[in-house]
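pasting for ref
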Amino acid sequence: MIACTSRKLLAGPAYNVSAQRYMSSTINQVLSYIQQNLAGNLREVDVAEMSSMSVSTFTRFFKRHTGCTFVQYQNRLRLNEACELLMCSDLGVTDICYRVGFNNVSNFNRQFLAQKGIPPSKFRALHRLNDAPSHAHKAAA
């Protein structure tokens, strides 16, 4: 057993962690706004303005905090939502495309393929294949 011989106090009894302070930070407000308006016509210039930043300042700020561009982040969220709908609904691929905020089915398919490695219709088919045994098991129970 190894024992620590030198301890260092990191915070005293007066230390107060306030989640509200972090939630009100600019990046959290931006990410929340993006999530709430994902299906709409979100433009980087509008989010920059909402954040009281120029577009170039916002672009650097966003990349520094998320590690990706505004459009990459937006597409990632939209594709994750599309996956959820492909797995949990019977909506067609075209309906899902527009519901999650893409304006163009071929762009949606291209983005989905690039991000997930398979087209949306195949993603759904594979999910249903994987899910089939659990449905059969539930029905037998």
